Amino acid sequence: MQTATETERKYDVPAGFSLPNLPGAAEANAFDLDATYFDTEDLRLARNQRTLRRRSGGSDAGWHLKTPGDGSSRTEHRLPLDGDAVPVELQAEVRAIVRRNPLQPVARLRTRRAETPVRDAGGRTLAVIAHDHVRADTDGSERTWEELEVELVDGGPDDLEKIERELLGAGAKPAKGPSKLARALGDRLQPPGDPPKTNPVFEYARAQRDAIAAYDPGTRQADPESVHKMRVGTRRLRSTLKTFKRSFPAEPGTQTRFELRWLAHQIGEVRDGQVLSDELVGAVEREGPQFADVAERIRDHLAAKVAHGREALAEALDSDRYLALLDAIDELVANPDTVEKNPLRRTRKALRKADRMLDQALVDNSDPELHEARKAYKQARYAVEVFEDAGGKRAKKLVKSLTKLQDVLGAHQDSVVAREILRDLAGSSSPDGFPYGVLYAHQEEVGRDTLGDLPVVMEAAGKSKLRSWLD
């Protein structure tokens, strides 16, 4: 499967529209395109800003899945034409959205396209303007219209702006809809009205639900960034259900938290190995060439851990258990009939609990207690994030301070885990365990150094002026 990033703008034009005389415009090429769009009966893909089609004709015939990108950009996943059924690779990309619902044809669009390249003085193609005459057949009805698409090729944002000024001057208008499919579906895709205002707890929970679905495809491929982001979304949602448990129905909330813990564990088996491989192997390699064999052994050990984790995670993401979890999350974050009157107090309690746990961990000089305090601060930080917009600058600064505190505790925990790995490998190594002993001692030093950083970040995160808005 190929992927590409598209940067394009769409314009509505009246019937009979003609392109103005654009500087650098070359002769147009004409194509006949025939595209069948696939979605669920309730249009889950379209409602989540995704389009899936099988298109013949033109220069890029094939299966195309378009997913949201940044700004005016979108990511397109492409596969060659091969049969009439949606390829399994594309089904995997949207599994978290469609779940058990079958994908079926929802619209057919036949387009007469005139494609005009716009080039600079050196012959470089800056953009391509597609003037489309569209006939859409959907749900027993037919619609026709004209529109323009301007897609960047080798040009930049300034080139888009110049072309847009010329088109707007000739009578084009920015498109009202996001895609041809949305226009073809018409009222079937119309939102029911302005979304109801909800408690920020539910808005935050919904954002994490959406993050889990958005990073599902990359996580299936073990992309490190996607694995990290999906894990964070899972943790944030679980933490929210725990901190603000009175805002959610008791029994389904508890069960969903349990299932989110299962999912986070599956993801963590991959993510932890990825992080440790980068950090621990790098630290060992910096010790010098005499530790090259140890570094290679650690790398192999962690690679095997990641490979095993990938197999288990792939199985989990294809399971009915995972799909049932996604359904349960949808039900929990739907508009509530009632919400807790003062959820902000839950944030205060979470933060104070983390403070107490860290104080006790330092008194006891206990690594396990420090790890638990770190998790408590993570839960408190997520709770603060719920009200970050309402809390203004103080809330944003508090989130940053808590993040730094959490990072210091995280670095200490990384040294603890690194020591465990070194001890395990030393026990199964050749009789000469000296290199492992040296590295173990260095990781002990790292642990002590990180604890030395704690007083500064603790003081910053504990400032009353950053927390006063919680009272």
Describe what this molecule looks like in 3D.
- The structure is a single chain.
- This protein has 471 residues and is an alpha+beta fold.
- It has 2 domains: 2-189, Hypothetical Protein Pfu-838710-001 (Beta Barrel); 200-470, Alpha solenoid (CHAD domain), CATH 1.40.20.10.
- Helices cover 55% and strands 18% of the residues.
- Strand 4 and strand 5 form a beta hairpin.
- Helix 7 packs antiparallel against helix 8 (250-285), helix 7 (224-243) packs across helix 12 and helix 13 packs antiparallel against helix 15 (454-461).
- The two termini are 53 Å apart.
- Major sheet details: 8 strands, antiparallel, barrel
Annotated CATH architecture of the largest domain: Alpha solenoid
Give the C-alpha Rg: 27 Å
Helix and strand succession? EEHEEEHHEEEHEHHHHHHHHHHHH
CATH top level assignment of the largest domain = Mainly Alpha
Unreliably modeled segments: none
Helix content: 55-70%
Named CATH topology of the largest domain = CHAD domain
The CA-CA distance between the termini, in Å, is 53 Å
* Count of discrete structural domains: 2
- What would the principal axes of the Cα set say about the shape? globular
The assigned structural class equals: alpha+beta
Number of helices, where a helix is a run of at least 4 consecutive DSSP H or I residues: 16
The total count of strands amounts to 9
**Strand order across the biggest sheet?**
1-5-4-3-2-6-7-8
CATH superfamily descriptor of the largest domain: CHAD domain
Overall pLDDT confidence: 92
